[in-house]
Amino acid sequence: MSSFSFSLATDDDVIIVNAIIENKFEFRLALDTAATHTTIDSNVLYFSGYELKNSLGEMEVETSNGIIIVELYELDSLEALGILKNNFEVQVYDFLAHNIISDYDGVIGLNFLKGHKICIDFVKNEIVTGL
């Protein structure tokens, strides 16, 4: 069982968790239980050593702001919240090119959490995994 603290200063804040690609590049993701897939910024992928030309293909995704086109990539490993996924497919989007500036580099979607038990405790401001 693993426990991770988070803070929400306002009602508009999101839960941010640390994630690691290939056990070497750490970045920040928003926990989004409404997202079906995990999506990361293309800059994270690039700085992790992946070639952006090696996409598995494109996909249309419906977001709260409309339809966007994302690239699909398979990561050797992605770790967050004490969960490790190997050969894990993510959606990649160029945040900067689309004027998206935020404190995080993407979202953890339900596809990452699938097969795991998690509890988001808003009283203690913690996430517990592996229950």
Could you write a compact summary of the structure shown?
The chain has helices at 42-47, 110-113, and strands at 2-5, 16-21, 25-31, 39-41, 57-63, 66-80, 83-93, 106-108, 118-121, 126-129. It is mostly beta strands and 131 residues long. Strand 9 (118-121) and strand 10 form a beta hairpin.
The coarse silhouette is globular
- Tally of helical segments: 2
Determine and state the CATH class.
Mainly Beta
Q: Looking at CATH, which topology would you report? A: Cathepsin D, subunit A, domain 1
Q: Name the assembly state.
A: single chain
Biggest sheet overview: 6 strands, mixed, barrel
Estimate the strand proportion. Answer: over 45%
Total beta strands: 10
Under CATH, the homologous superfamily reads Acid Proteases
**Using only CA atoms, what is the Rg?**
15 Å
| Topology as a string of helices (H) and strands (E) | EEEEHEEEEHEE
Would you identify the CATH architecture? Beta Barrel
Amino-to-carboxy terminus distance = 6 Å
Please estimate the helix content: under 10%
From the helix content, strand content and strand pairing, which structural class follows?
Answer: mainly beta
Q: Uncertain regions: pLDDT < 50 for 5+ in a row?
A: none
Tally of individual domains: 1
Going across the biggest sheet, name each strand in turn.
Answer: 2-3-8-4-7-6
